[in-house]
Sequence to fold (591 residues):
Amino acid sequence: MSKRAVLATQRTLLATLLAAGMLVGATALPGASHPAAAGTPLPGAANCPMFPADNVWNTNISQLPVDPHSAEWMASMDSATTNLHPDFGPSGDPSTPYGIPYTVVSPSQPLVNVTFQYASESDPGPYPFSATTPIEGGSQSTGDRHALMVNPSTCTLYELYDAQYSPSGSTAGSGAIWNLNSNALRPSGWTSADAAGLPILPGLVRYDEVESGAITHAIRMTAESTDTSFIWPARHEAGSSSNPDLPPMGARFRLKASYNISGYSPQAQVVLRAMQQYGLILADNGSNWYFGGTADPAWPSALVNELKEVPASAFEAVDESSLMVDPNSGQARQIGGPVSCSAAPGYRLAAADGGVFSFCAPFYGSMGGHTLNQPIVGMAATPDGGGYWLVAADGGVFTFGDAGFYGSTGALHLNRPIVGIAATPDGRGYWLVAADGGIFSFGDAAFYGSTGAIRLNQPIVGMAATPGGGGYWLVAADGGIFSFGDARFYGSTGNLHLDQPIVGMAATPGGGGYWLVAKDGGVFTFGDAPFEGSAGNVPLDAPIVGMAATSDGGGYWLVAADGGVFTYGDAPFDGSAGSNGLVAPIVAASG
Fold:
């Protein structure tokens, strides 16, 4: 297994249930939705979100009610006999991939004036349009000829329909300019580069998002026949008749939660999960159930073909009118209220498939859309919080952010699988530990000993390093503690009868103690580690799989396999994945 770099995206899925001062993460509030994440920035425009976190495009609609017109709208779109159709993918011509292209322009790109057919509903510009701007369908296309341009310095999105460049005077059917940091909508009644008066780029599926493991926005779609009306957030209609049985521009459709996506590939599941959580927005007239994506030669034919197998009958229309704050704004009410991040750094959860869930902590990437040789079993953050490592059961190491790659056991034959990872204090090395207590050192991580040659009563399940990096502790499933280097022994549960096995440990900041946590959430403290509470007497929907301590040692988080987070002491609650249907269970956490 080799190191892979994955484009960063934000994969934030939150729940907000607190009980008795702590989160019961596997239970969802009735009718609750999930606070949104700012739209995933484009490669090359990292400081420009695809609209703010509370924009309607970026708002989870999985808990919204079904629209009363759903059955009629679905029937008008031939949903009973039609499958989804990805409007992107390989075209046979690598120079002109199928889909809608975009370009991130240089801030110094010259601006040109454009003459519009629908000038009264177009933003006059000028636009960073040139002879080299990619055109939908290629330079000789006779189709919609969309051109999408982003200035990364000003976070401005420029979109043209029927774009025709000429040194003597460029023309287009219509044009729209968007501030990506704003929720402003176009004037009511105005078109854009799309019939609904909506932006195009924030609704396109991008392959970098699929690779990152999460798409956190709604997806642009088309329908053959629409009503001569539009609903928020759309601003314009292009209907064939005044008929309430036809969907209006702006209608939102959701893949039913009951539709089983587990049989699809991990990459297809990323797209389908977005359709369950964020849905599709009707933005233009076209073939029924076509949904938009970027023109990218990286799109795999197998993924595109797989998405064509999804029946349109698995969808339903939803009523998102309750989200509207102002009819002239794309801001969406966040049902359940957003989680306010604390002053402390957040935390991250890692799933067995390599998916990473970040809560008030930067997201730098994941392995959530990739095929792994072995499941992920652990994660560790860099000391400055600017990156993290994931480790798989075969010792393959995946690095993100400023986490350096210093080696792995991915190509070695191991006696027992890897079960954990710990980083050195300067972040320039790490240790991997196997279930038999074998230690593998990389970078500036020194080897101080192991239990690899010792017969253990129970397998090793985790490790923690001392603050100075001069030693480490290993913990076994029975709570037995093994100390190496300058790690001192403060006690263990090795001679106690436990209701459930130990699954993880965390050390205090000064190295004068440690906590152990059991599968039932029981917490055992040793040395100067304070006891702040446990989940030992709380009915759990899923077992505890690990823990992380706060930077000052005044509290800790426990995390369950379903992504539920339990907070104690000064550990703040910044969110959980407890009410989301996870593709794979959570296996580790880092503060």
User: Anything to note?
Assistant: The mean pLDDT is 87. Residues 266-277 form the longest helix (12 residues). Helices lie at 70-76, 207-212, 266-277, 301-307. The longest strand covers residues 156-161.
